[in-house]
Give the backbone structure.
Amino acid sequence: MLGWFRKKKKNKKETEETLAPQENEAISETSSEKNDAEQIVSRTGEEIASEAFAGAEQKGFFGVLKERLSKTRDSFVKRMDALFLGRKEIDEDLFEELEEILITADLGVGLVQEILDKARDQVRRDELNDPQALRDVLQNIIKEYLVKMDGLGELAMPESDPFVIMVVGVNGVGKTTTIGKIANKFSQSGHRVLLVAADTFRAAAIAQLKIWGERIGVDVVAQKTGADPSSVVYDALDHARSKNTDVMIVDTAGRMHTKVNLMEELKKIKRVIAKKLPGAPHEIMLVLDATTGQNAISQAKLFHEAVNLTGLTLTKLDGTAKGGIVINVCRELTIPIRFIGIGEKMDDLRDFDPHIFVEALFAENNV
Ligand SMILES: Nc1nc2c(ncn2[C@@H]2O[C@H](COP(=O)(O)OP(=O)(O)OP(=O)(O)O)[C@@H](O)[C@H]2O)c(=O)[nH]1
Ligand SMILES: [Mg+2]
């Protein structure tokens, strides 16, 4: 589990210091830009919040996760349960139908073959005949893929320097929203957070980040649309140092993983950060949209090649039946999944815990 959001102990300097008023950068921002972004962000917050938040309180942490994974549960576990219910024994027909279910749930052909081969072996070895026993076998095999992520790539936050997180990914995957959610968690646990608008392609992108900043109550460093993203991060590091920032999170523009010049720009941002603050960025997080299915793997491979990723977040697991991609990501990559996004609002980001994830996916309906 990540220790990033442990309550921060205040040091002497901070305790004595009266917090200066937030000194956001002064860039001019037209009201239409702001309206654009307000629409994006207010939709993410208010509309879903009232229903989902009330639900969250009643159902509890596990219940909410289970509910948000319901599309994947329906396409995968519930179909599997229905299949097993009608069968008295484990035979090759059962395996064939199971294969189709697993492929539809976007586990990927290679992974499905591997899972079924392991399951067949175990059924033979343990002389299993009851389809319910096969359910347990499958749950354990899937869990084995996910727990490989346990303890992988743990990151200790630096003692005095700001902890720098650079967030990357293709367009629209949920980078800015995830940054808002992470920033909120850090801020809630007493860390001083700085958001950096290095997505300078669109005015609305800068304004969107600023609204998150305002809402959470953290500083945002930005420049004008079209500014060099590297120069934005350069300024931001000065700001971070002068304000005793604990965590600096850099939002970058969405880019196709196949566009070489755009990947070069990311490398440059990384270089500029590293030159100014050796050891940083400490975390280069790729955000993947779970609804894209198998394409997520090639995105991850190309971003990793370019900037050497240290962590992943899989978003929109609430909106897809293709949640099986999580298992494939664990099989194909050795980059830890830090978080999963299970909705649009501020609280809808969870630490990725393989054990809890499998439990939620396989939970019986009445659990
Ligand atoms: N259902 C759901 N929607 C999400 C989740 N995460 C993000 N979104 C939505 O995805 C959409 C795109 O999110 P952004 O954060 O703007 O994505 P981005 O990657 O910053 O986009 P660009 O900056 O344009 O590349 C928004 O409508 C978000 O509310 C999630 O976990 N679940
Ligand atoms: Mg964005």
